[in-house]
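Objective 1.3, modelling of assemblies. Example input:
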Amino acid sequence: MAEYSISVNGKQHTVNALEDMPLLWVLRDIIGLKGTKFGCGMAQCGACTVHLNGTAVRSCSVPVSSVGENKITTIEGLSANGDHPLQLAWQKHLVPQCGYCQTGQIMNAAALLKANPHPSEQEIEQAMEGNLCRCGTYNRIKAAIMSVSSAS
Amino acid sequence: MKYQTFTQKKQDAVSSEVFKASRRDFLKTGGMLAGGFVLGINLFSCDEKGKKVAAFAPNVYLKISSSNEISIIAHRSEMGQGIRTSLPLVLADELGADWSKVQIVQAEGDEKKYGNQNTDGSFSIRMFYKPMREVGAIAKTMLLQAAAKKWQVPETECDTENSQVVHKNSDKKLNFGDLVAEASQLPVPAVKDVQLKSRDKFQIIGKETPIVDLPAIVNGQAVFGIDAAVEGMKVAVIKRCPAAGGSVKSFTDEKARSIPGVLKVVQIKGAGLPATLNKPLAGVAVIAENTWAAIKGRDLLDVVWDLGPNASYDSAEEIKQLVKEVSQPKGTPRRSRGDFDSQKMSAKKVIERTYIAPHLAHATMEPPCALAVFKDGSCEIWACTQNPQGARDVVAEVLGIPVDKVKINVTLLGGGFGRKSKPDFIVEAAMLAKETGNPVKVQWTREDDIHHDYFHALSVQRIVATIDKDNKLSGWNQHIAYPSISATSDTKVVQPDDGEMMLGAVDLPYDIPAIRIETHDAPSHLRVGWLRSVRNIPQVFASATMLDEVAEARGMDPVAQALELLGADRNITFNQEIVKGTYPNYGEDIAAYPWETRRMKAVIERVAKEAGWGRKLPKGSGLGFAAHKSFLTYVACIVEVKVGAGGKVTIPSVHYAVDCGTAVNIDRIKSQFEGGAQFAASLALKSAITFKEGRVEQNNFDTYQIIRMPESPKEIHVHIIDSDAKPTGVGEPPVPPFTPALCNAIYKATGKRIYNLPVDLVG
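Predicted structure (tokens):
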């Protein structure tokens, strides 16, 4: 066990955790930010996607000891009022079914558009390949991302 | 708990009774809807003798407060199908409510209060559409009466809109809230005395209504089972016996206990055999301060198992054995029409094929999880469950406490697909909470989920089809073997039950002179459960790909053949040809929900038109067709496929035509079909569970694969037949016809017939 100070959504948190505890469980079990979901524990499904300095990472596979000074953003910190263009597009395109994977999908898509504001359809598919949706909302996810991309 | 999904009657509630709720009734809702104008609905159905039976207390509540707030209780589980939206909107439409201001309150699990809440079998809309309309209409009538009296005008001059009563002959308007004091003093009119809206007056029904949880989901605020928490909660992760029916011989936990945060290690006895549809597997639980410590501790447990009678189970060997079984000339007859043997003797051509499909896991994105608190002889639970009442009953049984001391709070479900109808994971939490005295959340990891699911069982089917000298399809003989769901509750069961045979086997609707459906022995070696559309998956994969092959042998177009084989417009009953028992018809009286060839032909013609059936495609591409009615909904499907270098399959387009009667929420019908195609694409192209030495060989999404965005079907078009027939479900019906349509398209593209799932064009 050791004490770590990490920056999440612009706020500094001091947590006492095992050094190999994945960021996912630090966020959910210690800090109490539950929008980030557990799906596989081995970076296969993307449900736990958060941003590390603006880049999408699978928080289930990032040990807390490796976070250091890097800035973490979760779905709760993506926008002030749930009004990130992707969050709005997700509602306009009626994307979610059960909704469980969608916060990870949105975080992954937000990092994609930050790095590449106008991705091609193929680039979107490649970037989103790591995010599974068992309900099968892929086509609406793609449409929502493309609508934000073309509006910017 | 018996397997009751299809054998249990699920008829329309034959009547409903609406009444004003008393203070005592408010208490029954746990205070959820205290105050204001509250109506409860009693739903009546008939028992086996045709006697009207009522639930003991209201099933559904509607509340209108004096500040014009409207609340509706949602008593079914939400797992992505949109039911928390689609049932309340039916009531709101009849009432004339402002939908944007309606609050949805989730009901706890209580059969006495809410009737059957087991959310599976695609029947929520089918069963509750009419009663929801009636309570809306009754409340509206009472509000109209109150307003008419206040304004001294005839009631017929008044109507409701946007949560107001309006006087059509003047500009008088009153909020519902301003009328609740008067309305709640009026007698409740009988259902026969109220007018339901005509279809052209619907404001919400038949439109595209966003789900009520949409903002919470995209903001990360939606509460799933995994998000439930109480003060002082501990987390348990369990090492379970790899083989169903095994037990713990011994274990050592020193290493597990050395992990900081690990608090306790507790053995769970498990159901043994039969494995049951509701009780846990044997295992050892590690209880810790947080999930990570519990996972680490669990991984460090040393357990010696007695794997029990299924220790040597090998699914590849089982398939070989079942191929032998179905190769026998005679099995147990399940449906019989005409004389198949003589048709075969005189046939011009005989086609015989064997179809194999593997075990599958549900792999809901949210793995099973449940939180239980045990205090003073009572147990309160928060869980992602499709079946809160089943969970309540088994928790009471296992803990040895009365049912009314168990409270089940239903969270949102991160996917269900039938897995979360089984409350084994809820029982685990309840047992550990009682044993330790701590609030305990049991968290399944993905590996736990893949290893210990209630699996969709593998299947082997041999079909013999005969073509006579007039080039007609003259005989159909289907031999079927797979472990039955019923075997999970009773190990003596070795052949499919009547409910399973209903799902795409004995309901073959075609006008073929001789039909013989037979089953063979397949003892079960695993926990078998139901997965989205259940046995329709392997049975329709077999029959609808065989039909494509028959059409080719006859030199016919498969769509034209389907229309020919459906024959004249008529209602099919199957009953006289079922060898033993009757055709279950998904729990509905077949007189009320007949099998209408007219409606099936209409969806086939529609899909062929919309998909451009018959259009020329470049080499390496093809269109495939299949049609199937399941869960009382008629579906036809055309899949376009492109097979690239190395056998890589892409799916540029899918067209579905669907007749589900009255379309309640167009958007959620479309989304269920879009998702159904993706779900079926996973099982057709990617997924398989295999067993070796009693253990599942796959672990996580790396080895148990589901479809990802780049390979998923691209354009999915859903064409809904305009209908005012009784509504039927849409959760499961998209799945069965997709796989055979895809396989038939692959044949067109490559010349290769598919007899094994998942499709492998490389090996």
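Chain B touches chain A through 69 residues (CB under 8 Å).
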